[in-house]
């Protein structure tokens, strides 16, 4: 990737209204069987078109073919019973009914590889695919088999590595692992969390990203954020560990958050995907607001290692708002690119 400040989205885009309920997180599908398969591909094709039309440099699927960023992957694994559900505390924030691990987990066939190959057919630009990270996966399940969060995480890491290698073979340039749990479980993060993530990324030639955020703009997350004080310093726990890790890129939330921008310095030497678009509001950023966020970050990360992005996914937003935010991201990056080019003359 030779573009200066290449733009990218983190994860989801809103789904068309004929595929799922608009502005609703993890909405059920409106179509079934063959019509659903066709509808997913149509939605993925639209997501690519909207990113390209907005000038986004690194193209993703917008998570158009999956309901949930974690459980859609787990649905395809053996050893997990979706009929046997238990209520667990998700990331120490809210209770949810989740499926139960009842036996050894395994992946009998690829999960997203066909979808990724279809994405590859839609564009010659670099493409990125997101997978859940091991720690976030175990935090979205009840475990009645392994009875060890660490052991289950290592099993998932091996499965994720299998999937990631096949995604790479299908033409994916960048593989992202979503680990919002890294902002919560600091002891596990240090003891085995980063090591399990490195196992998931082991042997890949594709660029690898770990995405850590404060979550979608839902009430449970917003209530949690309200307890974090005037500065959100959770990244101080993960960034030093990730700076030393084998992961290539660290993706973080920044725009309209209380994350001190100087924490980016802890990642010096790594690429940084910087969230310059707030996904918890319908207000569309101006290009100048995006540019200002990027300028502040450039005090702590070299320009050739900065990837302007969104804070998180945009699934709960309207399609028009999401399009506006995509355009603002590109326009803000263009402003700073122009300034950097002028400085080198």
UniProtKB/TrEMBL annotation:
Residues 5-331 form the Cobalamin-independent methionine synthase MetE C-terminal/archaeal domain. It is an enzyme of class 2 (transferase). GO terms for biological process: methylation. One of its GO terms (molecular function) is 5-methyltetrahydropteroyltriglutamate-homocysteine S-methyltransferase activity. CDD domains: CIMS_C_terminal_like. The keyword Transferase applies. Its cofactor is Zn(2+). Pfam families: Meth_synt_2. InterPro entries: Met_Synth_C/arc, Met_Synthase_cat, UROD/MetE-like_sf. Keywords: Metal-binding, Methyltransferase, Transferase, Zinc. Its EC number is 2.1.1.13. PANTHER family: 5-METHYLTETRAHYDROPTEROYLTRIGLUTAMATE--HOMOCYSTEINE METHYLTRANSFERASE. This is Methionine synthase.
